[in-house]
Design a protein that fits this description.
Blueprint (H helix, E strand, L loop, with lengths): L13 H4 L17 H15 L3 E6 L6 E6 L2 E7 L7 H13 L2 H13 L8 H4 L12 H13 L6 E4 L16 E4 L4 E4 L10 H16 L3 E3 L2 E3 L3 H7 L5 H16 L1
Parallel strand pairs: 1-3, 4-6
Antiparallel strand pairs: 2-3, 5-6, 7-8
Helix pairs in contact: 2-3, 3-4, 6-7
The protein binds zinc ion.
Length: about 260
């Protein structure tokens, strides 16, 4: 692969060069990206640079910007912080990527500095605030078992108990038992599941479902985000206690809602 034309080299403005990393991790975590915003950004880069641009959005920790030019197409990977960057920054980014404009690289570098808080933190500094060991159930142990059994140990998400949202007045009619955010690579379980009457196999089912979201990023069909395509549901049914878990949920949903 030719990686010639956009020389993000060290003699460039150091501030920016420090943020650049030309090697890309093989398994970048998935990010849910607003497709409309991605297209707007790609179009603007094309307008300013006057060349076709293939743009993908990342959640990388080290590589904020990566670009190669091949066969007349500029292939760019950008951190999601650029999705809502002001026009002036986007224009500078295009000038930097295509014309190696020095002033532009200063603008982009400053933007990255100011938005550094949006870069995913190191796990070691972050996991401390997350609790996976509940009163009754240890989520990490459940997650580790599932990871070995169903994913060859390859899932590298994080897991924690969520916190109970305060509700005013209204009776609860639905409950979100689990969630997954790609940006944080974090699985959260509803704290109401941390009770003795909730069997481990059911908690494991909720965790398994969220782990599938980690390994099967949402797709888009005709502009709609598809979270649970047929393939997802098929894998979900591979869970050993699938039928039992579904039945348990049905039988106990009222108690969970209380
Ligand atoms: Zn889901």
């Amino acid at each position: 692969m030719a990686r010639a034309a956009v020389p993000l080299r060290h003699h460039m403005v150091k501030q920016l060069a420090d943020q650049l990393d030309l090697s890309f991790p093989k398994k970048s975590p998935a990010v849910y990206v607003h497709e409309g915003a991605r297209q707007v950004l790609a179009r603007r880069l094309e307008q300013v640079g006057r060349m076709p641009v293939a743009l993908s959005i990342t959640d990388n920790r080290h590589s904020m910007i990566h670009a190669t030019r091949r066969e007349g197409i500029l292939r760019v990977r950008l951190h999601h912080m650029f999705l809502d960057a002001p026009v002036a920054v986007v224009d500078a980014l295009a000038r930097f990527l295509i014309f190696r404009d020095r002033e532009a690289s200063g603008i982009v570098g400053r933007y990255i500095d100011v938005h550094a808080t949006r870069i995913r933190p190191l796990e070691s500094t972050h996991t401390r605030t997350l609790t996976s060991d509940g009163v009754v159930h240890d989520l990490k142990a459940i997650y580790d078992d599932l990871n070995e059994t169903y994913f060859d140990g390859e899932v590298d998400a994080r897991i924690c108990w969520g916190t109970e949202a305060t509700r005013k007045g209204k009776r609860r009619t639905t409950i979100k038992l689990g969630s997954y955010t790609a940006q944080e690579r974090l699985i959260r379980l509803h704290p109401r599941l941390d009770q003795a009457y909730v069997p481990r196999y059911f908690i494991a089912f909720v965790v398994y479902h969220e782990m599938l979201h980690h390994v099967m990023p949402a797709t888009r069909v005709a502009g709609r985000r598809i979270l649970h395509p047929a393939e997802f549901r098929a894998r979900e049914r591979e869970y050993r206690h699938y039928e039992k878990a579904i039945a348990w949920e049905k039988a106990h949903i009222d108690r969970l809602l209380k």
